[in-house]
């Protein structure tokens, strides 16, 4: 969260772990050492209407005879909501693969995608084949390294390629639209007064209602930053993110929100993404308001209830996307290390005395909020299935 009249920009582009072709951001939940077991379990998932696919990390011997030999088969789940159930089933399968539960007549299966198709011929064609027909991939080490390098186009291609992944990002778009409208409505943190003496203009009324604390209430309470919150105006925890100090402040925050937010919302879903945004914003405001003006603290870290901007929430998204892949090896997106260095470097640079009017407490609080959501979300998820 940046203070009025100050802004900067950093490019934020998530990276993607290589997934099967023609896929969206799928989740790899486990591996198999042999193809029959992989196909058997994938067929079981298909019988449970779970859209899954398997692929091998070795080349097809028909194409490359020198590649014949042991290979590892990866199991991918398309929908985030199916991951937990699939992991539980995988644990049971590893414990007893001969269980009747996992004996499936593949000739009677129709894949989830085909089941939803209105084309009868397509459905019949799919039903005639095993539901777990694998896409055999043969990426070399150099190809994998190239695919996992920092890039700005491949991520979007994968994110937008498949219709079964959530394509719309209503929360991200709503935040951007509201921020633009409200920032212009309040004249970018400098609301103009009314032509009528003694009356507040629309710009002033909107700005005062959306700030963390009402200025008059703050003065009357003797400087209590939480006085408006105590009065029941709980929306003020969130609404300062829609206010911005100037056009650059708005533009750069919205760029960060768009690149990080649209990616995470597509992957996590709108509800979970909204929770992440709210936790990050509230954590940022809480720390920003609560830091006391100790003499041993740099002035740039002193708290203030009048901070505005969405960069606390943006740092929360960054914190989530930075930490989650570190603790969840199968998380399908991650930030390139150079982006992490840039974001953390910017965080530290803003604490220097030569960078004025920056709500560093909001940056730190938002970052911590995003990290907490990443860790708690991982802990609450089912135990990772082991190969």
TrEMBL record:
> What superkingdom does the record give?
Bacteria
Protein's UniProt keywords contain Iron-sulfur: no
Keyword ATP-binding recorded: no
Print the keywords alphabetically. Answer: Hydrolase, Membrane, Protease, Transmembrane, Transmembrane helix
Q: Which Pfam families match?
A: Rhomboid, Rhomboid_N
Q: How does it sit in the membrane?
A: Multi-pass membrane protein
- Could you tell me the EC number(s) of this protein? 3.4.21.105
Q: Which GO terms describe its cellular component?
A: membrane
Gene3D superfamilies reported for this sequence? 3.30.70.2350, Rhomboid-like (1.20.1540.10)
- Subcellular localization: Membrane
What Gene Ontology molecular-function terms does this entry list? serine-type endopeptidase activity
Task: Name where it mostly resides.
Answer: membrane
Domain Peptidase S54 rhomboid, chain residue ranges per copy? 232-376
Q: Where is the Peptidase S54 GlpG peptidase N-terminal domain?
A: 26-107
Q: What residues form the membrane-spanning segments?
A: 171-190, 271-291, 303-323, 335-355, 361-380
Any GO BP:
proteolysis
Under the heading InterPro entries, the entry gives: GlpG_N_sf, Peptidase_S54_GlpG_N, Peptidase_S54_rhomboid_dom, Rhomboid-like_sf, Rhomboid_protease_S54
Which top class of enzyme applies to this chain? hydrolase
| Matches recorded under PANTHER family | PRESENILIN-ASSOCIATED RHOMBOID-LIKE PROTEIN, MITOCHONDRIAL, RHOMBOID PROTEASE
Q: Give the UniProt family note.
A: Belongs to the peptidase S54 family.
Supply the name of the protein. Rhomboid protease GluP
Species of origin: Rubripirellula lacrimiformis
Ranked from the top, the taxonomy reads: Bacteria, Pseudomonadati, Planctomycetota, Planctomycetia, Pirellulales
Q: Its encoding gene is what? A: gluP
